[in-house]
Description:
- The chain is α+β, with helices and mostly antiparallel strands.
- It contains 16 helices and 10 strands.
- Among the domains are: 150-253, no CATH class; 553-579.
- It has helices at residues 3-32, 36-39, 46-59, 61-82, 85-91, 96-138, 221-225, 272-295, 297-300, 313-329, 333-351, 400-420, 426-488, 495-519, 525-548, 556-578; strands at residues 150-151, 157-164, 170-178, 187-199, 204-218, 235-249, 365-368, 374-375, 386-387, 391-394.
- β4 and β5 form a beta hairpin.
- The model is unreliable at 355-395 (pLDDT under 50).
Amino acid sequence: MKKIDKLILTSFAGPFIMTFLVVVFILLTQHMLKYFDDIIGKDLGWEVLSQLLFYFAIFMTPVAMPLAVLLSSLITFGNLGEHFEITAIKSAGISLLRTIRPIFFFVLFLTGLAFYINNNLVPTAALEAYSLLYDIKQKKPALDLREGAFYNGLPDISIKVNKKFPDGITLKGIIVYDHRKNDGNKEVTVADSGRMSTILNERYMKFELFNGYNYTEGANNEREMTGQKNSKSETLTRSKFFKTQVVFDLSSFQLSRTDKKWFEGNRIMRNLSELDIDIDSIKTEVLQQELNHYLYKPTYFSYFNKDSITMPEYLREFRKVRDSINRFRHMPKEAIEEERAARQQEAQTRTAPANPVAKPVNPIVKAERSPTKKIRKGTPLRSAVVTDEPVKTVMPGASDSLKSKVNADSVFMARIDSVFSMPTRRTTVQAATNMARQVKSQVLNSNAAIENYQKERVVFEIQWHKIIANSVMCIAMFLIGAPLGAIIKRGGLGVPFLISIMFFIIYYLLNMQGEKLAKQGLISPMTGIWAADVILLAIGFIFLRQARADARLFDADAYRVFFDHVGQWFKAKRAGAAV
């Protein structure tokens, strides 16, 4: 490695590490402020808080790394330009592209690292962080008895303390209401003073009460034994004590962990392969819903099953694949082999030449085409299907059984004609209306389910593209920061920080708007997510071209000279018009 490459890399490595840590800290602080109310007052240990901060820090990495690359590249090349080191490098015959090449390869490595973090570490960190945060939200606040106020944090227990001494243990003027029997304020304990402490690894709280009374209101014991309860027979019992102990369970104050399998279905907790499986499953559900329209269509019509709408070819293919999978899934291996051999034999039979021998014609019964349609014999009236099959007539010399069969068909047709000639009843119309409403409701519900599946599929596709697009954004930010730093020629954290914040806001707005349009279905998920990367890459190439040409984009004198030329041109034009 040449000395110039070492100089550039060492100038970039220090600012990158510093800016990355600063950006992660800022984003982590901003993110944790949203859950401040859920965390404070829960008496969480440092172990739990450190785990939560660590997981959320990894979760912030996809956003922090592109911003750190932009800010560090601006600082690096701004410092080189401010100390005229870029000028010296160019005077030695080394182009700007050759100067930024070592950092570009390092940024490519960071891009691969960012993809690995986004695809492997971030889903795991999100699962751990949000499952832990859910358990923290479910945890009750720490036990905090306040003077003169009832505390209802314990299940079915209300405690009031008139005075709490500074040691946090000694109490005075204690009232305890026990509602664990769910029958009102029928058990009350009043004590002059007491002490509060936790036992058995803080799983239980023990109250030592002194000089008090225990009041119990309830039914007569004799009547309770015989099952006779009456409000008029209730009794009040008062017992005095000089010292007693009351123990309360504090299990609800412990942090209990929920099984992580209930959180694994969220899109931010899935990697690319898992998202592919989710997207494929959603597409299968959509095809199944569409196929149900055609499979259940015969049940919608009671008397007339003909329909000009045929099943699309892609649904036919999906049905074949689904049926074959379901059939072979439950078949033993021997049956599968037999099925395969039978299919091969059937395919060979199809390729054999057709038999030229014609099928003999029955001389007894012949078919004649009738101008009227006929309903098959034996078909129920509700499921009768109107067909164009030929009407059978009896030829001379036929048997008596055949004649009786034809006569029965004629009688059946006469009954059918009489049914069709009957006037329409109100109950029939009402039944048809109810059936139409039922069919409409089923179709609307199926369409709503398909729409929900489509929205869910778009969300998973957006997350799939974000994993890759956030990694590629490191290259776009570097192509903006390096040329821009060479043009500005300002180091430090002042101007580079402002410029990096401006471009980060542009990236955030473009990404947010593209994701919003993709969720609304106005554009595809790929277009919505990759639009920000493409736009910023184009801006980066423009800045790179301007930096190679030593453009003075941020030099006030250049703009002052430009406007002076424009003013002189207008004056000359006015003078020519006056002459």
